[in-house]
Amino acid sequence: MTDKHIEMHGVRKSYRFFTLDDLSLSLSPGEVMGFVGPNGAGKSTTLRLAMGLISPDAGEIRVLGQPMPAAQAAAKRDVGYVSAEMHLLPNATLGWHMDLVKSIYASWDADYAARLVKRFNLRPEQNARSLSLGERIKAVLLLTLARRPRLLILDEPTTGLDPVARHEVINEFMDVLQDDSRSILFSSHNTVDVERISDRITFIDRGRLVESSNKEDFLDRWRRVQLQLPAGAALPALPNIVSRNQDGQFVTLVTDRFSDGFAALLGPHVREVQRMTLEEIFVANVMRHREVRGS
Amino acid sequence: MYSGINISQTDARPMYLQIMEQIRARIAAGDWPAGKELPSIRALAAALNVSVITIKRAYLDLENEGVIVTRHGKGSFVADVNGLAGELREAQLEQHLAEVAGIGRELGLSSEDLAARLRRAMEKK
Fold first, then answer.
1. Chain B residues near residue A30 by CB distance under 8 angstroms
2. What are B51-106's pLDDT values in tens digits?
3. Is the pLDDT of residue A275 over 80?
4. Chain A residues with CB-CB distance to B54 below 8 A
5. In a domain, A284, yes or no
6. Is the same domain home to A77 and A169?
7. Chain B partners of A198 at a C-beta cutoff of 8 Å?
8. A115, A80 in Cβ contact below 8 A?
9. Is 3.30.1490.100 the CATH classification of the domain at B15-78?
10. Does A179 share its domain with A240?
11. Residue B12's closest chain A neighbor by CA?
12. Residue range of the domain that includes A240
């Protein structure tokens, strides 16, 4: 048995033009994992595998301790999944949808649902057809959150939301996490959101895991270092350089293993050591990964 | 829910340092006296919309500095150290003086010039 909320080992899923290969990741209770990758990297495929919506060709997947997709019925009672493809019945009201979900899930929390209606500025008597994109996303999130699932799997939950709606939605995600037995796995292109609320971050590109690590580690290890070398001097040999760019005496290095020792090696040539945003780390990481894989 | 702390996206410092700095400022100012209980890690994470791991990091570093103490299962509290607020103000002063000295050097000022400027600044008040 395992107390992890999600465990994937060596998962493989092949399509004609795309293969997700050798994917391993794990998510513990109380954690938020941000799943980041370019379009077509395999994010949605991974989340659908975790939900048991598709079966892996190889590898092992456990969700809330249950093997997937074999035990998906048992696992899914306690998992909430939201993706952009989810649709509501156009001629039914939000209230009708709430009653429907309530009739299926014993865990439905009516008080919480009513609070979410208010916080998200929704109207239960409104037909789904007349909801704006942002309102529809919030409605689907409401229907999922009010079941109080232990694990939330969210595929691009903030895409298409305006800044105010995004703030409202993220507020609710963080509220869920006040209970340390719950967890969230979400994919996003918005690296600012990911950087802010994730405990762990997983980068994926072209069907392969690039790196998965604790967020504070990521942000601590990566640095951009600006150097000015004396005219004609060569750059000393340095370990763990992800990229280097030289313009005359001026050199810009990116490292993923920064330490005080690293700066000491370069001594007086260092003009500035800069922290990097998650977006910059992501791009540098993916570019290096593609170089190493020779594509 | 406590939400007096701000996280700025235009601040180059990482989020955990911004949080530490604002907690230190509250203690230095006396708003948060010795023994005051800090918000729980998860409550503060929810209030600031910041990951739990970031708040944990901030609290752990403050604990290592001796500014707060964490009692397992009970929460985190402002350390009950004599004159902690004063010590934090001293540390702030030292930091600003180091910056003043740095700028002074860049401008080519002597220690005497700088001391004279400081004296004038003191008299202005």
1. 52
2. 999 999 999 999 999 899 998 888 999 988 777 777 777 888 888 888 888 888 88
3. yes
4. 215-216
5. no
6. yes
7. 51
8. no
9. no
10. no
11. A275
12. 223-275
Contact A177 B16 (CB under 8 A): no
Interface ipTM above 0.85: no
Q: Which two tokens stand for residue A268?
A: 């007086």
Q: Do B53 and A192 touch (CB under 8 A)?
A: no
Distance from the Cα of B52 to chain A's closest Cα (Å) equals 7
Closest Cα in chain B, distance from residue A220 (Å): 9
A178 at interface of B, judged by CB pairs closer than 8 A: yes
The model's pTM: 0.85
Tokens for A29, please give them: 């209770």
Q: What are phi and psi of B70, to 5 degrees?
A: -115, 125
Q: Say what angle helices B84-106 and B15-28 make with each other, to 10 degrees.
A: 120
Please give the pLDDT value at position B51.
Answer: 95
Question: Does residue B125 carry a pLDDT above 80?
Answer: no
| Rounded Cα distance, A153 and A175, in Å | 16
Compute the distance between CA of residue A76 and CA of residue A43 in angstroms, rounded to an integer. Answer: 19
Q: Which B residues, 1 through 40, put their C-beta within 8 Å of a C-beta on chain A?
A: 7, 9, 12, 14-16
Percent of chain A with pLDDT over 90: 69
**Is residue A204 included in any domain, yes or no?**
yes
Three-state DSSP class for residue B78: strand
CB contact under 8 A, A178 and B42: yes
